[in-house]
Amino acid sequence: MCGSDTACTCASSPTTEPATSPDGTRTVYQIAGMTCGGCAGRVSRQLTDLPGVRDVSVDVASGAVTVTSTERLDDDSVAAAVTAAGYQLVR
Ligand SMILES: [Cu+2]
């Protein structure tokens, strides 16, 4: 990528962020249709209602929704919650 064979630092560096942390499992979902903070709020509320969910963080610009839960969530449950909010889970 950077044109240098030696001492290249642009190669992919190892991910230091663990998939699971002591406070739960973090999963990033891609959701289509969100355009503003109101959308984010609706999605966030629906997902927060799912059993085991501890935290929901929505990035409207990219459509990425990070869900922290005590255990791994069922994709269908997440999709249903997103649909209930009026949006679509991309998978
Ligand atoms: Cu909106």
Describe this structure in words.
The structure is a single chain. The chain has a single domain (19-89), classed as 2-Layer Sandwich (Alpha-Beta Plaits). It has helices at residues 37-48, 75-85, and strands spanning 20-21, 24-32, 53-59, 64-69, 88-90. Helix 1 crosses helix 2. Helices cover 25% and strands 30% of the residues. Strands 1, 2, 3, 4 and 5 form a 5-stranded antiparallel sheet that branches. The chain contains 2 helices and 5 strands; from the N terminus they run ββαββαβ. Strand 3 (53-59) and strand 4 (64-69) form a beta hairpin. It has 91 residues and is an alpha+beta fold. It binds copper (II) ion (CU). Residues 35-36, 38-39 line the site of copper (II) ion. Copper (II) ion (CU) binds at residues 35-36, 38-39. Residues 1-24 are annotated as: Disordered. Keywords: Metal-binding. It comes from Actinoplanes teichomyceticus. This is Copper chaperone CopZ. GO terms for molecular function: metal ion binding.
Calculate Rg over CA atoms. Answer: 16 Å
Q: What is the total number of structural domains?
A: 1
Encode the helix/strand succession as letters: EEHEEHE
Query: In percent, how helical is the residue content?
Result: 25-40%
CATH hierarchy, class: Alpha Beta
* Strand segment count: 5
Output the keywords.
single chain, 91 residues, alpha+beta, Alpha-Beta Plaits, 5-stranded antiparallel sheet, 5 strands, globular, binds copper (II) ion, HMA_dom, Copper chaperone CopZ, metal-binding, HMA_dom_sf, metal ion binding
